[in-house]
Structure formats: C-alpha cells, structure tokens
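Schema walk-through. Below, the input block comes first and the output block second. Nothing else is stored per chain. Lengths vary across the set, and this one has 391 residues.
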Amino acid sequence: MVNQYYFYCVDRDFGPFFLKLCSYFPYNGKLCINGHEYLKRQLAREGIAFEALDNGVLSCEDPERAQAIADGFSADKIDALARKWLALLPHPFSAQDREAGYGYDISILQAEFSLTQVLDRPVQGRIFFEQVLRDNLDLGRPDRIQLVFNRRVTRRTPGRFRTRVLTDGVTPTLYVDYKQTRIKQYHKQGRAVRTETTINRPQDFKLGKRLKNLPALREVGFQANRRLLDVQRISHDCPLGQELFDQIHRPRTVGHQRAPALRYGDPRVLALLASLVLFRLLPNGFANRDLRESMSEMLATDLTSGQMSYDLRRLRLHGLIERRPHSHRYQLTPLGFRAALFLTRSYNRLLRPGLATLGPQRPPADVPIRRAFEALETAIDKAWEAQQIAA
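--- output ---
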C-alpha cells in the first residue's frame, strides 16, 4: 500500500490548511486551503472587528476593506504559501533533486467560489429558501444551464445536467450539475443564503489547470453564482413580502401627512382595490368621479366626492396610485396594480371560500380540507381527555 503523509498546519496569514504528500513516484502532493480563513486572519491582523459565520463572515466593521482583502487572494500568494511550507516540511524531493530542476508545480484540482448573503430577517429565511427550491427544480435542464454558466449546451454536449434537492437533517440543499461542475445552494445556519460553485475540471470552460488560471476560474465561478441568483429572481413569482404587507395595511406617515391603513378584508378597501384593477387599462387614468361610480356600484350605496378624496389620498400616500401632472386624474403605479390584483384574488379565491369550508355550517359537498381540520380537532380533543385522565 502507498503511504500518504498529512501535515496539518496553521499559517500566520492563511490560518489552518493541510498538505498531503505521496511517498510513491511521482510523489503527488495536495494542498487544501480556505479563502475565508485567509480573510479572517487578515482582518484580525489589521484590527478590523468582524463576526464569523462558520465558513464565512456574518458582519464586518469595514466591509469595503474586507472585500479588498478577499480580492487580493491571488495565485501568487497561494504559490508563496506552498513554497514556504515545502521548505520547512520533509518531502520526497531531495536538495539534489531540486538543484536538478525537479520539484512541485501547482495545478487546480478543485476550486470553490461562494457567495454568502446574510438575511436581515433570518426568521423568514427558510420560508424564502423553500420557495426558491419549489420554483427552480428545472434548473438542471440544458436551456436553463446555458443561462447560469453562459455556455452553449446541445445534444452532443457531454456530461450530466440535472437538479437535485437533498435534505441533510432539516436543511434542504439545491444542487445543479453541469458536466463536472456543481452549484450548491442552501440556507446556512438559519442566517444566510449560501451559493457555491465548485469547479472540478477547468477544461469544461476551456481553461487550463495551472494555478495561473485562477483569476479566470474565479470569474467563471462568481459569474455562475450571480447568474443563478438572477435566474431565480426572474423566475420567482414572489408574493407580497411582510414589509410590503405592513406598508399597505398599517397607517403610514409621508412627510407631515398621515395615511390611514388599508386593512385587508375591509369591504371598502376591497372595493377600492377591485376598482384599481378595472382602471388599469384606462390610457388617461381615472378621476374622483370614476372611482365614486365604481365603488358605489360595488358597495350598493351612494358615496360622496369627499369620501373618494379621502380614499384617493390614502391610496396615493401608500404608493398605490400617483397623480398625473397638471391634472386631477390618477394612474396606478406598478406596485398598485400588483398589490390590488394579488390582494383581491387571494381574498376572493382563497380566504373567503377557505373559511366557508371551516365554519360551523357544513358545506354542501364533502371538502378535503374540512375533513382534515375535523380530524385534527378530534385528535386534540382525545389528547386533552387523555391528559385529564392522567392528572
């Protein structure tokens, strides 16, 4: 059996790394380093406060300087690290061998490029990431792979193209394969979305394996990360977020003006939003009279011009409509149309019929959701009775 010798070291500049040397000709070696450890060491040496996030940085006192340090993680510095420790550690090439020109040259066996995006609301991170998984299960298709890696894929292109979702414990992970390159994306420690591109064969991108090709590989890896996020952003049918929901459904102050809330489920608010959807196609926008006629019909009551002025004011301050220049007419903003469409449809198609099936009056048809809730109530009642008996 061939003996392999492992040296686990800690460098002043690079932090922990290991060097593996083979005792059998041609005496292959393997150097494994971590760019995040290099960054942490440099930040500590410069006295810049930071908080680590496992294999990454959660926060930093000077993010611009941290980015500059990360950008300076070059092939020359990696080569210098290898030469420094090969001069200190025993290895198969003797002094005579080195004088004769025999020694180690560095090639890239595997390179990983990661992007860690820390979430300002970690509690919603898992919900967000699970939605990303559902919307991007087809990323491994050749046409989608072309968007991520900027490489043309045809029927003759060798390799494997697929998407996999694996669960390690309770953390789901998205894998996208292109030939011998893989993108891995997961929710990291409940705090961040982590995207990693691992290149195992630089020739897949018409690049050599020598260390001098690291800058070009870095560009490929980071561009793949960004393109994946762009594809996900474009394909992600994102619902209204919590922040936007609060902006619409809570009172809002703009300058010295205060706008009352547009409360979800209020009949007048729903009529307002439904009217906005109807006014979407009007080329010249709509006026107070148009809104009053529409809402009076929906609510089956006569509304005054003053009431419409009140509603127009709060719609404008909430950012759903805007006034046309030099006129008394209004038009929807992009946010106004999307919010009005989403909120009216979610109420009419989901909330109202869903609650009808759960009410005290049994619906005419046997509804699956009603059966599920009744089974849940029965189980809770039995558990409660069991607890009383035990007590």
